[in-house]
Amino acid sequence: MSGFEQALAIVLQYEGAYSNDAADPGNWTGGKAGDGELRGTKFGISAAAYPEEDIATLSRERAASLYRRDYWEPVSGDALPLPLALLVFDAAVNNGVSRSCIWLQRAVGAHADGLLGPVTFAAVARAVETRGIDSVCADFHALRLVFMTELPTWPHFSAGWARRLSLLPYQAAELTAK
C-alpha cells in the first residue's frame, strides 16, 4: 500500500461519515454556519470547500481523488517521511494546505511562507537527521494543537478533535514505507 493510501485510510477513520451538523461551518456552501446551503461533509469533503459536489452521494473513490489532488500533492506527501506526511496531510485536510505547510516550515526552522520547495525539504531532511523524526513530528503537531484549541468551534467539537489529535502521532509512528 502506498504512503498516500495508508495516510488516506487513517484520515478517513476520522472523516468518513456523512454529517450535516448545522454548527459546522464546513457543512455550508458559504463556509459559515447559516451561509448558503447546508449540504454537509462526507469523507471529509465539505460543502464549503466543494460547493458543486453532491456531498450526500459522494463515493470513496471520488473523495480519494480529491484528497490526492487537493491535499496530498500540494503538501508533497510523497517527498516527506511517512509519519510526518500523515500529520501534514491530515492537518491540510482539517486546517488547510497553506497553514499545514507553514506549520511544517516552522517545525523544521525553514522560512514559513506556506510554499514547499527545495529549501523546505532540505530543512526537513536536516531536522530529521539532527533531531529525529519523532521530534519533528512532535513540533509540527504541537503547532497544530495550539491552533485547534484556540478555534471558536473548539468547545463544540473538542471531544472528537482531541481524540483525533491524540491518536494521530501513534498512528503516524506505526506507518511503514511499502
CATH class (first level) name of the largest domain = Mainly Alpha
Name of the CATH superfamily of the largest domain: Chitosanase, subunit A, domain 1
Number of helices: 7
Could you say how many structural domains there are in total? Answer: 2
Q: Major β-sheet, in short?
A: 2 strands, antiparallel
Under the CATH scheme, which architecture of the largest domain would be assigned?
A: Up-down Bundle
Mean pLDDT: 94
Please provide the ordered H/E string of secondary-structure elements: HEEHHHHHH
Q: Write the CATH fold name of the largest domain.
A: Chitosanase, subunit A, domain 1
Derived structural class: mainly alpha
DSSP strand (E) fraction?
under 5%
Strand order of the largest sheet: 1-2
State Rg: 16 Å
What helical percentage do the residues reach? 55-70%
Give the termini distance in whole angstroms.
6 Å
Number of strands: 2
Shape: globular
Low-confidence stretches: none
What layout of secondary structure does this protein have?
Blueprint lengths: L2 H13 L25 E2 L2 E2 L13 H13 L9 H14 L1 H12 L9 H14 L1 H17 L4 H21 L4
Antiparallel strand pairs: 1-2
Helix pairs in contact: 1-3, 3-4, 3-6, 3-7, 4-6, 5-6, 6-7
Summarize the structure.
With 178 residues, the chain is mainly α. It is 58% helix and 2% strand. It has 2 domains: 1-58, no CATH class; 74-178, Chitosanase, subunit A, domain 1 (Up-down Bundle).
